[in-house]
């Protein structure tokens, strides 16, 4: 059938489309997606044929290599995407109240939004923390705060608990281990799922504390600990989200993320672990907010790329090593501050891409996130959005409903080639660290951000209510604000914890932490002792800074 | 778009990140945009204190300080930068801001001596135009 499809497509262009264009042109001279590629007027079998598309090797069946159609044979017919929430603000008590409300609404997995001082290793009384305690998240300065945060919430009643801790990922993991012990739970009874993807902080998210090399080893300490003590936990979630949004676009961001993931795997292998011990613990957090179909293609094809890389480059044999779990955070196209209720529609579309992409874990953004911490109402709508998609409209009845769509598969094939090319470039620069240090990742992000801004200024990239059909005056709900007293309360609580703890135990644990860090041994046991002795995040990071050094801000632009 | 200026008239701008948030895509984008519009631009890098920003502004003899902040602590940090600039006699240095800033805080910031707050969705050319006019006014006056 080979040449026939191509000839048919050419005939249609010549005899039908081109004459119609002369009668009335299209809305735009060209349609270009965020990946910078022209979108064709229509896709058909000839496009897939040109890519050498083969059902068995490109897609296969759900639960089978290369897992394009999903990692589980039954997918959402068996288990719907986990309803997750990313939450935390003010004091641990404020956040505990929010957590209970979320659980009552049906949230199954909680990820702590940490305030910036905590993420950066500053105690609330540090001068650098001033004005930021409890603002972008909740302050977790000592184990005491985590105890208050999860008061009345046994860890084993949730599908997973975690946080976006990155530079301090292993410290937060140690706190969860200690909290589990306090709740009388063995690590096998609950699941901790961390971000702990420190490498992307240097290029996109920006909460790095240490220089990249020691930070990488520190992150892998948590991974190594889990392999030995809690192999069902998720110690690292490599994220394309922040790199994409910063400007790279989802194709390049996915390539950089896979390179970062490889960096963690390589460090674990260097320590003598095997690929089939380590790979099943990894998870990806993928993202695409500019184009619905690029998003679906991205989630599906990344599974295929992962399966090939792990089998062919690492020799992984265990199917769990080849089946990458993916989480998503549904935003949809850029949320606007203008007319924020419109964001509900955007977030719904984003969530739909995650369902069509076969993700395991999903959190929906709140419609007011572009302005402030989510309000109660907005959080509720977010959870209901995911539940409505899961239950109400036939979306989850069959596995991979967009599989085989000409457009989606053509996008996927192209994206696969582009991701492979960028990964090769990263390899040639010495892997993720080399590509970062030579500015390749930063430049890709800066160029993409500039391209997006220009497209926005020209109204080729549209936000309704912002650069197209704007309304004056804007309507917007009141800003949800954090009580100014939070900082004082947090400082006070840390002071009380310090007064009540055994100073000698703290000193010994911190001394052990320093020795282990200096000798390049896994620091998790020392962190666990320090956390249980109620050492503060600032104290632990202070010790680690004295050994690892501090990150020097990049002033290039 | 601001006119391309010759070296003698080049407007000097310090783009600063204060507070702890690590989101500097916007700050870098504005820095690049102003440079493309013919201005001399210096970027501080992440997580500077108001004291560090003011020291850099005076040492670099800038006309305008542009602060990007997304962490929510804009009122405290921007007020402090303005006070420190004024205390150093740098009352002629214009202070502008961008980032995630609720509309109801704009008036508060203007009261505190911030010349202009750019909310999200502002085009680069609008910012360049404003900064261009700022600098010219300063050199003229």
Per-chain topology:
The complex is a heterodimer of chains A (557) and B (141).
Chain A lengths: L1 H22 L21 H6 L4 H5 L22 E6 L4 H14 L3 E4 L3 H4 L23 H7 L10 E4 L5 H14 L9 E3 L17 H18 L6 E4 L1 H30 L4 H4 L3 E4 L6 H22 L5 H4 L2 E6 L11 H16 L3 E4 L11 H16 L14 H23 L2 H7 L2 H18 L28 H15 L2 H17 L4 H9 L4 H12 L9
Chain B lengths: L11 E6 L7 H12 L3 E4 L6 H10 L4 E6 L4 H14 L6 E6 L3 H9 L4 E3 L5 H17 L1
Parallel strand pairs in B: 1-2, 1-3, 3-4, 4-5
Distance separating the two termini of chain B? 22 Å
Helix content of chain A: 40-55%
Could you state the CATH homologous superfamily of chain B? Cobalamin-binding domain
Proportion of residues in helical segments of chain B: 40-55%
Mean pLDDT of chain A: 95
Uncertain segments of chain A are: none
Overall, the morphology of chain B is globular
Q: Rg of chain A from C-alpha positions?
A: 24 Å
Instruction: Give the domain tally of chain A.
Output: 1
Rg of chain B over CA atoms, rounded to whole Å, is 14 Å
- Write the CATH architecture name of chain A: Alpha-Beta Barrel
CATH level-four homologous superfamily name of chain A:
Methylmalonyl-CoA mutase
